Amino acid sequence: MTDLNHIDIRKLDFGLLLVLTEAVRQKKLSTVAETLGLTQSAVSHAVQRLRTLFNDDLLIRRPHGVEPTAKALELATQADRLLSAANSMLTPDQPFDPSASDRSIRVVAWDQELMALGPAVEHHLSSIRISSRMLDRSGTIDALRRGTADLAVGIFNRTPNILRRKVLWQDSFVTIAARAHPRLSGSKALTLDAFCEEGHVLTTLTGSSRGRVDESLAAVRRTRNVRVAAAQFLTTLEVVASTELISTIPSHVANRFANRLNLSVFETPLDMPALIYEGLWHARADSDQTVQWFINLLTK
Q1: Do 28 and 80 belong together in one domain?
Q2: Which helix (H) or strand (E) holds 238?
Q3: Are 31 and 77 found together in one domain?
Q4: How far is CA 284 from the centre of its chain?
Q5: Separation in Å, CA 25 to CA 22, 87, 201
Q6: Do 235 and 161 reside in the same domain of the chain?
Q7: Domain span at 291
Q8: Is residue 87 predicted with pLDDT exceeding 80?
Q9: Within this chain, do residues 267 and 178 fall inside the same structural domain, yes or no?
Q10: Are residues 112 and 251 in the same domain?
Q11: By the 8 A CB rule, do 78 and 119 touch?
Q12: Residue 204, class by beta-carbon neighbours within 10 Å (0-12 exposed, 13-18 middle, 19+ buried)?
Protein backbone atom coordinates (compact mmCIF):
# COMPACT_ATOMS: atom_id res chain seq x y z
CA MET A 1 0.00 0.00 0.00
CA THR A 2 1.18 3.53 -0.75
CA ASP A 3 1.13 6.52 1.54
CA LEU A 4 -2.28 7.76 0.42
CA ASN A 5 -3.74 4.74 2.20
CA HIS A 6 -2.00 5.40 5.49
CA ILE A 7 -1.93 9.15 6.17
CA ASP A 8 -4.55 10.89 8.27
CA ILE A 9 -7.13 11.67 5.57
CA ARG A 10 -8.26 14.76 7.51
CA LYS A 11 -4.93 16.44 6.72
CA LEU A 12 -5.42 16.01 2.98
CA ASP A 13 -7.73 18.00 0.73
CA PHE A 14 -8.46 18.11 -2.98
CA GLY A 15 -6.58 21.41 -3.30
CA LEU A 16 -3.35 19.67 -2.31
CA LEU A 17 -4.04 16.82 -4.73
CA LEU A 18 -4.61 19.28 -7.56
CA VAL A 19 -1.30 21.03 -6.83
CA LEU A 20 0.50 17.68 -6.73
CA THR A 21 -0.93 16.37 -10.01
CA GLU A 22 -0.39 19.65 -11.85
CA ALA A 23 3.16 20.01 -10.52
CA VAL A 24 4.03 16.51 -11.71
CA ARG A 25 2.42 17.27 -15.06
CA GLN A 26 3.69 20.84 -15.60
CA LYS A 27 7.02 20.55 -13.72
CA LYS A 28 6.91 24.30 -13.13
CA LEU A 29 5.27 25.83 -10.06
CA SER A 30 4.57 29.19 -11.69
CA THR A 31 2.59 27.40 -14.39
CA VAL A 32 0.73 25.41 -11.72
CA ALA A 33 -0.26 28.70 -10.07
CA GLU A 34 -1.60 30.07 -13.38
CA THR A 35 -3.49 26.85 -14.20
CA LEU A 36 -5.19 26.64 -10.80
CA GLY A 37 -5.72 30.38 -10.34
CA LEU A 38 -3.53 30.54 -7.23
CA THR A 39 -0.72 32.77 -6.13
CA GLN A 40 2.80 31.36 -6.28
CA SER A 41 3.07 31.65 -2.49
CA ALA A 42 -0.12 29.54 -2.11
CA VAL A 43 1.35 26.85 -4.40
CA SER A 44 4.65 26.91 -2.47
CA HIS A 45 2.76 26.54 0.80
CA ALA A 46 0.78 23.59 -0.62
CA VAL A 47 4.00 21.89 -1.74
CA GLN A 48 5.45 22.28 1.74
CA ARG A 49 2.34 20.72 3.28
CA LEU A 50 2.59 17.82 0.86
CA ARG A 51 6.26 17.25 1.75
CA THR A 52 5.37 17.19 5.44
CA LEU A 53 2.42 14.84 4.94
CA PHE A 54 4.35 12.30 2.91
CA ASN A 55 7.80 12.81 4.45
CA ASP A 56 9.39 13.19 1.05
CA ASP A 57 10.83 16.04 -1.03
CA LEU A 58 8.32 15.16 -3.79
CA LEU A 59 9.36 18.06 -6.05
CA ILE A 60 13.08 18.81 -6.36
CA ARG A 61 13.99 22.28 -7.59
CA ARG A 62 15.90 22.41 -10.87
CA PRO A 63 17.11 25.42 -12.93
CA HIS A 64 14.03 25.36 -15.17
CA GLY A 65 11.37 24.08 -12.76
CA VAL A 66 10.89 21.05 -10.50
CA GLU A 67 11.58 17.36 -10.91
CA PRO A 68 9.11 14.91 -9.26
CA THR A 69 10.57 12.17 -7.09
CA ALA A 70 9.59 8.52 -7.54
CA LYS A 71 7.13 8.87 -4.67
CA ALA A 72 5.59 11.98 -6.22
CA LEU A 73 5.00 10.10 -9.48
CA GLU A 74 3.34 7.24 -7.61
CA LEU A 75 1.18 9.57 -5.52
CA ALA A 76 0.14 11.59 -8.57
CA THR A 77 -1.23 8.44 -10.21
CA GLN A 78 -3.39 7.74 -7.15
CA ALA A 79 -4.42 11.36 -6.85
CA ASP A 80 -5.58 11.37 -10.48
CA ARG A 81 -7.91 8.47 -9.72
CA LEU A 82 -9.31 10.20 -6.63
CA LEU A 83 -9.88 13.46 -8.50
CA SER A 84 -11.53 11.63 -11.38
CA ALA A 85 -13.87 9.84 -8.95
CA ALA A 86 -14.73 13.12 -7.24
CA ASN A 87 -15.43 14.75 -10.59
CA SER A 88 -17.78 11.89 -11.49
CA MET A 89 -19.69 12.44 -8.26
CA LEU A 90 -20.21 16.11 -9.14
CA THR A 91 -21.06 15.56 -12.80
CA PRO A 92 -24.83 15.50 -13.53
CA ASP A 93 -26.14 12.07 -14.55
CA GLN A 94 -26.44 11.57 -18.26
CA PRO A 95 -29.70 10.17 -19.68
CA PHE A 96 -29.63 6.37 -19.60
CA ASP A 97 -28.73 4.86 -22.97
CA PRO A 98 -29.69 1.15 -23.11
CA SER A 99 -27.65 0.64 -26.29
CA ALA A 100 -24.50 1.55 -24.35
CA SER A 101 -25.30 -0.66 -21.37
CA ASP A 102 -24.11 -4.19 -20.73
CA ARG A 103 -26.09 -4.43 -17.48
CA SER A 104 -27.91 -7.61 -16.52
CA ILE A 105 -31.25 -6.82 -14.85
CA ARG A 106 -32.15 -9.41 -12.21
CA VAL A 107 -35.90 -9.96 -12.16
CA VAL A 108 -38.02 -12.09 -9.86
CA ALA A 109 -41.09 -13.21 -11.82
CA TRP A 110 -43.19 -16.21 -12.76
CA ASP A 111 -43.28 -17.46 -16.32
CA GLN A 112 -46.59 -15.67 -16.95
CA GLU A 113 -45.09 -12.29 -16.03
CA LEU A 114 -42.10 -12.95 -18.26
CA MET A 115 -44.49 -13.65 -21.14
CA ALA A 116 -45.98 -10.20 -20.66
CA LEU A 117 -42.55 -8.56 -20.44
CA GLY A 118 -41.42 -9.95 -23.78
CA PRO A 119 -43.13 -7.48 -26.17
CA ALA A 120 -41.98 -4.51 -24.07
CA VAL A 121 -38.30 -5.42 -24.00
CA GLU A 122 -37.75 -7.37 -27.23
CA HIS A 123 -36.21 -4.39 -29.07
CA HIS A 124 -33.64 -3.86 -26.31
CA LEU A 125 -32.41 -7.42 -25.80
CA SER A 126 -29.37 -6.81 -28.01
CA SER A 127 -27.99 -4.47 -25.33
CA ILE A 128 -29.47 -5.34 -21.94
CA ARG A 129 -29.74 -8.81 -20.43
CA ILE A 130 -32.48 -10.17 -18.20
CA SER A 131 -31.87 -12.93 -15.67
CA SER A 132 -34.99 -14.25 -13.96
CA ARG A 133 -35.97 -16.63 -11.21
CA MET A 134 -39.14 -17.64 -9.38
CA LEU A 135 -39.41 -17.08 -5.64
CA ASP A 136 -42.23 -17.13 -3.13
CA ARG A 137 -43.31 -13.92 -1.40
CA SER A 138 -40.82 -14.07 1.47
CA GLY A 139 -37.99 -15.05 -0.88
CA THR A 140 -38.85 -12.14 -3.18
CA ILE A 141 -38.79 -9.57 -0.39
CA ASP A 142 -35.55 -11.02 0.98
CA ALA A 143 -33.87 -10.89 -2.45
CA LEU A 144 -34.81 -7.23 -2.90
CA ARG A 145 -33.62 -6.36 0.60
CA ARG A 146 -30.30 -8.15 0.14
CA GLY A 147 -29.74 -6.67 -3.33
CA THR A 148 -29.62 -10.06 -5.08
CA ALA A 149 -32.57 -8.95 -7.24
CA ASP A 150 -33.17 -5.59 -8.93
CA LEU A 151 -36.91 -5.85 -9.54
CA ALA A 152 -39.85 -8.13 -8.84
CA VAL A 153 -42.87 -8.27 -11.15
CA GLY A 154 -46.13 -9.80 -10.02
CA ILE A 155 -49.23 -9.41 -7.88
CA PHE A 156 -48.40 -8.25 -4.37
CA ASN A 157 -50.43 -7.56 -1.26
CA ARG A 158 -48.84 -5.82 1.70
CA THR A 159 -45.12 -5.12 1.39
CA PRO A 160 -42.51 -3.48 3.70
CA ASN A 161 -42.25 0.31 3.51
CA ILE A 162 -38.64 0.08 2.30
CA LEU A 163 -39.92 -1.40 -0.96
CA ARG A 164 -41.32 0.79 -3.73
CA ARG A 165 -44.16 -0.37 -6.00
CA LYS A 166 -45.69 0.76 -9.26
CA VAL A 167 -48.62 -0.59 -11.29
CA LEU A 168 -47.35 -1.95 -14.61
CA TRP A 169 -50.50 -3.40 -16.21
CA GLN A 170 -53.86 -4.98 -15.45
CA ASP A 171 -55.44 -8.18 -16.67
CA SER A 172 -58.43 -10.45 -16.03
CA PHE A 173 -59.06 -14.15 -15.59
CA VAL A 174 -60.39 -16.42 -18.34
CA THR A 175 -60.97 -20.16 -18.37
CA ILE A 176 -59.39 -22.48 -20.91
CA ALA A 177 -60.22 -25.98 -22.13
CA ALA A 178 -59.06 -28.17 -24.99
CA ARG A 179 -61.03 -27.42 -28.17
CA ALA A 180 -61.72 -31.13 -28.45
CA HIS A 181 -63.07 -31.30 -24.90
CA PRO A 182 -65.92 -33.86 -24.97
CA ARG A 183 -68.36 -31.73 -22.95
CA LEU A 184 -67.28 -28.18 -23.80
CA SER A 185 -66.37 -28.44 -27.48
CA GLY A 186 -68.50 -26.05 -29.51
CA SER A 187 -69.80 -24.21 -26.45
CA LYS A 188 -69.79 -20.44 -26.67
CA ALA A 189 -70.15 -19.89 -22.95
CA LEU A 190 -69.26 -21.71 -19.78
CA THR A 191 -71.90 -22.00 -17.08
CA LEU A 192 -71.06 -21.95 -13.38
CA ASP A 193 -72.45 -25.47 -12.99
CA ALA A 194 -70.23 -26.80 -15.79
CA PHE A 195 -67.29 -24.88 -14.36
CA CYS A 196 -67.71 -26.53 -10.95
CA GLU A 197 -68.30 -30.01 -12.36
CA GLU A 198 -65.09 -30.17 -14.43
CA GLY A 199 -61.68 -31.09 -13.04
CA HIS A 200 -59.30 -28.15 -12.70
CA VAL A 201 -55.60 -27.39 -13.00
CA LEU A 202 -54.36 -24.81 -10.49
CA THR A 203 -51.11 -22.95 -11.07
CA THR A 204 -49.38 -22.38 -7.74
CA LEU A 205 -45.79 -21.90 -6.70
CA THR A 206 -46.46 -23.22 -3.19
CA GLY A 207 -48.28 -26.43 -4.13
CA SER A 208 -51.49 -25.26 -2.42
CA SER A 209 -54.80 -26.68 -3.69
CA ARG A 210 -56.63 -23.38 -3.18
CA GLY A 211 -56.33 -20.11 -5.06
CA ARG A 212 -58.21 -16.94 -5.97
CA VAL A 213 -60.85 -18.89 -7.87
CA ASP A 214 -61.68 -20.90 -4.75
CA GLU A 215 -62.10 -17.69 -2.75
CA SER A 216 -64.57 -16.36 -5.34
CA LEU A 217 -66.41 -19.68 -5.39
CA ALA A 218 -66.66 -19.69 -1.60
CA ALA A 219 -68.38 -16.29 -1.80
CA VAL A 220 -71.23 -17.93 -3.77
CA ARG A 221 -71.06 -21.14 -1.72
CA ARG A 222 -69.64 -23.28 -4.49
CA THR A 223 -66.50 -25.42 -4.79
CA ARG A 224 -64.44 -26.96 -7.57
CA ASN A 225 -62.38 -30.10 -7.98
CA VAL A 226 -58.66 -29.27 -8.32
CA ARG A 227 -57.01 -32.34 -9.83
CA VAL A 228 -53.55 -30.97 -10.64
CA ALA A 229 -51.42 -28.25 -8.99
CA ALA A 230 -48.72 -27.05 -11.40
CA ALA A 231 -45.81 -24.74 -10.56
CA GLN A 232 -45.72 -23.01 -13.96
CA PHE A 233 -48.33 -21.77 -16.42
CA LEU A 234 -46.61 -23.52 -19.33
CA THR A 235 -47.21 -26.81 -17.54
CA THR A 236 -50.84 -25.85 -16.93
CA LEU A 237 -51.32 -25.07 -20.61
CA GLU A 238 -49.87 -28.40 -21.72
CA VAL A 239 -51.97 -30.37 -19.22
CA VAL A 240 -55.19 -28.64 -20.30
CA ALA A 241 -54.39 -29.11 -23.99
CA SER A 242 -53.90 -32.85 -23.59
CA THR A 243 -56.63 -33.75 -21.05
CA GLU A 244 -60.25 -33.01 -20.15
CA LEU A 245 -59.19 -30.70 -17.31
CA ILE A 246 -59.84 -26.95 -17.44
CA SER A 247 -57.99 -24.03 -15.86
CA THR A 248 -58.57 -20.39 -14.99
CA ILE A 249 -55.57 -18.26 -15.92
CA PRO A 250 -54.68 -14.66 -16.88
CA SER A 251 -56.05 -13.69 -20.28
CA HIS A 252 -52.66 -12.61 -21.66
CA VAL A 253 -51.36 -16.14 -21.16
CA ALA A 254 -54.46 -17.79 -22.63
CA ASN A 255 -54.58 -15.58 -25.70
CA ARG A 256 -50.91 -16.11 -26.45
CA PHE A 257 -51.22 -19.91 -26.58
CA ALA A 258 -54.85 -20.57 -27.57
CA ASN A 259 -54.24 -21.15 -31.28
CA ARG A 260 -50.86 -22.77 -30.79
CA LEU A 261 -52.26 -25.42 -28.40
CA ASN A 262 -55.83 -25.65 -29.79
CA LEU A 263 -57.46 -24.21 -26.69
CA SER A 264 -60.92 -22.71 -26.22
CA VAL A 265 -61.04 -19.55 -24.14
CA PHE A 266 -64.17 -18.84 -22.08
CA GLU A 267 -65.25 -15.98 -19.92
CA THR A 268 -64.95 -17.21 -16.35
CA PRO A 269 -68.50 -17.52 -14.90
CA LEU A 270 -67.50 -15.85 -11.64
CA ASP A 271 -67.10 -12.34 -10.33
CA MET A 272 -63.31 -12.29 -10.17
CA PRO A 273 -61.13 -9.36 -9.05
CA ALA A 274 -58.88 -7.69 -11.62
CA LEU A 275 -55.28 -8.85 -11.78
CA ILE A 276 -53.05 -5.88 -11.00
CA TYR A 277 -49.40 -6.49 -11.86
CA GLU A 278 -46.85 -4.30 -10.14
CA GLY A 279 -43.14 -3.70 -10.18
CA LEU A 280 -41.47 -3.93 -6.79
CA TRP A 281 -37.99 -2.61 -5.99
CA HIS A 282 -35.90 -1.53 -3.01
CA ALA A 283 -35.63 2.17 -2.15
CA ARG A 284 -31.90 2.04 -2.90
CA ALA A 285 -32.79 1.53 -6.58
CA ASP A 286 -34.63 4.87 -6.76
CA SER A 287 -31.44 6.39 -8.17
CA ASP A 288 -30.49 3.36 -10.29
CA GLN A 289 -30.94 4.62 -13.84
CA THR A 290 -31.05 1.14 -15.35
CA VAL A 291 -33.75 -0.16 -13.03
CA GLN A 292 -35.87 2.99 -13.37
CA TRP A 293 -35.55 2.91 -17.17
CA PHE A 294 -36.66 -0.73 -17.17
CA ILE A 295 -39.67 -0.01 -14.95
CA ASN A 296 -40.73 2.89 -17.17
CA LEU A 297 -40.32 0.67 -20.23
CA LEU A 298 -42.74 -1.86 -18.76
CA THR A 299 -45.42 0.77 -18.12
CA LYS A 300 -45.50 2.08 -21.69
Answers
A1: yes
A2: helix 233-242
A3: yes
A4: 11
A5: 5, 19, 73
A6: no
A7: 98-170+276-299
A8: no
A9: yes
A10: no
A11: no
A12: middle
Q: Are 103 and 112 in contact (CB under 8 A)?
A: no
Give me the mean pLDDT over the 204-222 stretch.
Answer: 90
**Higher pLDDT pick, 74 / 245:** 245
Residue 261's φ and ψ, nearest 5 degrees, are: -110, 10
CATH number of the domain bearing residue 102: 3.40.190.10
Number of domains the chain is built from:
3
Q: Please give the pLDDT value at position 82.
A: 85
pTM: 0.66
Given a contact cutoff of 8 angstroms between Cβ atoms, the answer to whether 127 and 99 are in contact is: yes
Number of CB atoms found within 10 A of residue 94's CB: 8
Mean pLDDT, range 271-290, rounded to an integer: 91
Whether residue 152 contacts residue 281, with contact meaning beta carbons closer than 8 Å, is answered with yes
Per-residue model confidence (pLDDT) at position 255: 94
**Distance (Å, rounded) from C-alpha 252 to C-alpha 51?**
70
CATH of the domain at 16: 1.10.10.10
DSSP secondary structure letters along 172-233: -EEEEEETT-TTTTT-SS--HHHHHHSEEEEE-SS--S--HHHHHHHHTT---EEEEEESSH
